[in-house]
């Protein structure tokens, strides 16, 4: 299961990229920065969920109403991004649990 | 009233559940409802992060329908688990406010 | 490859080969960073190397995405690749790095939107 399997296979991934490109500039910028942040944090929804495609849906809806992206999600983009993955475990947590042999708290 | 964000954080999910319990609705309408209620700082993005969580936790039913402008829109209704969660929210709320009232009366 | 086989089992070999195909398509700076990240992350691996695969996958995703945008690798990873990798795996300093990534996210957005004049 990989990032590119989120949207099963290369063609869908390319379609995903094309949708990003079709967004207004401000939306593109924020989408990409959030995606980058998620690549680092590694929420499990990244590969086995619809986190990114859903976010793109939401941005497309927002853009269609003519709103600016910060008007839509507020100035604190990181708070918005964290809100999206609030209940989500991360790959880092799963890895840390696997080496400690029990559910634990990573990143002390 | 300004700067409610921190205090509102824990209750916003309950507010959204309550709004959805009234009738089938969508993110933008929920945000408008909260804004009209006086929670003017709440933006669509905040509501979106809550809706994503409600969906993931199986508290709502989601239907995608075409909208006048832009891509299809997601409509939400509460399911049984959602109604139970809402009842729990109001019970907690009652508990907290009754304690706070007591505290204030005692402090006088 | 045999090292990887031994610790993780054959099914991961294919996934591993796919990583290498993707990595080969990266520009030189990003490819070098991939080698470095791989080295760090693999140094954590024990019997549970399997759980490192999604972390490597995300890291590779980050490299691909930033390469396609023409970003300088230094801008993406910063100076401390070792610390960065430890944070990716949730090890020491992960909290600090997460805060840093959070700040970086808001700073980048502010800077780039500012450049738009919006």
Describe this structure in words.
Chain A: This is DUF1048 domain-containing protein. Chain A: It comes from Bailinhaonella thermotolerans. Chain A: InterPro entries: UCP029876. Chain A: Pfam families: DUF1048. The complex is a heterotrimer of chains A (108), B (108) and C (118). Chain A contains seven helices and no strands. By secondary structure, chain A is mainly alpha-helical. Chain B has one domain: Winged helix-like DNA-binding domain superfamily/Winged helix DNA-binding domain (Arc Repressor Mutant, subunit A, Orthogonal Bundle). In chain C, 75% of the residues lie in helices and 0% in strands. Chain C contains seven helices and no strands. In chain C, helix 3 packs across helix 6. Chain C is globular and about 50 Å long. The mean pLDDT of chain C is 85. Chains in contact: A-B, A-C.
Spatial strand order of the main sheet of chain B: 1-3-2
The CATH topology of chain B comes to Arc Repressor Mutant, subunit A
State the helicity of chain A in percent bands: 55-70%
Pattern of helices and strands of chain B: HEHHEEH
Summarize the entry for a quick read:
By secondary structure, chain B is α+β, with helices and mostly antiparallel strands.
Task: Write the topology of this structure.
The complex is a heterotrimer of chains A (108), B (108) and C (118).
Chain A: H1 9-22, H2 25-41, H3 45-48, H4 51-64, H5 69-73, H6 77-84, H7 91-100
Chain B: H1 5-22, E1 25-26, H2 27-36, H3 44-56, E2 60-65, E3 73-78, H4 80-107
Antiparallel strand pairs in B: 1-3, 2-3
Chain C: H1 2-8, H2 11-24, H3 28-42, H4 53-68, H5 73-77, H6 81-88, H7 94-116
